[in-house]
Amino acid sequence: MPPKQVIDFSVNLSPLGLPLGLKTAWAKLINSLAQYPDPEGAGLFEYYNTLYRLSETNLLPLNGSIEGIYLLPVHLGLKRVLIAQPGFYDYEAACKLAGAEIKPWRLDLANQFSFAGLEKELEGVDAVILGSPHNPTGQSLKPTQILKLCSTYPHINFIIDQAFINLSCDPKSLSLLGPECLRPNLWVLHSLTKEWALPGLRLGALVGPDSEIRALKAKLPPWRLSGPALAAIPYLLGDTDYLKQVYSTLKQERSRLFSELASNPKLTLIPTDANFFLARYNPQEGLDPLLKSALEAGLMLRDGRNFKGLEGAWFRFAILAPAQNDRLLEFLK
Question: Which spans of this chain does the record mark as coiled coil (predicted)?
Fold first, then answer.
């Protein structure tokens, strides 16, 4: 197939794209290339303190939340980890790299891939890694559920990836980012990449107990975050309307897409708390013709067949801006 410009529904970023203030300030940010950045990534401390009232002692700045996914299994010396399937590939890859055994937990389509029954799966593990919202299913756990599990099983580390929290259906009620949610065995990963549409700048944080955060910092080299990335943070803090607009757009489009597609006999569509949908293509010819036709129509969908725990013609698509979603709806109908 010859190269052509496509609308990329395979990447789950903010539908609004780069914040305007950051775009217009980019020429100024280039000046940061001529200086060493703060060795500890201090600009992120201000970001999380301002938005989430989190203290520096409970924060580890990250070069994208993916860094935390790979740091934690090694730091904690994890031995056997419960990982929900289907799930983000790097959870398992990070644990295997650390020498940990994986206890796979198959989420059930009959329950729309919810986390029902999680507590029954905890026997014999020293950690749980899952997303809330979870990729690729879009399902979440309420903070009260997670905090109760933390109290009931103090010997288990609960590692919760909230990379999509500000792209979710209810960021305030689903978020674990706040001093009231701190627990000795709870780790929360957060990314600025997705909610601000900044995958190239690599910004995120790990929230955890102060003693362990201090120990982790002592193991890491300085200057892990670039100057341009840290210089962008004040512009993000100054753009007080951007995340509100993201929430409003996603709320409208999430509802519209589900309403238009849920009754489509060719699709099995999973309700979502996130900024993406998981769907199965039901016709017997399988997924390849759909993906090929989508590319020919200028649309890129995420092939879901390489997610462990998904059997059949599953694919994922992001919720984008209204005009882009119109193109997808026209194609899928």
Answer: none
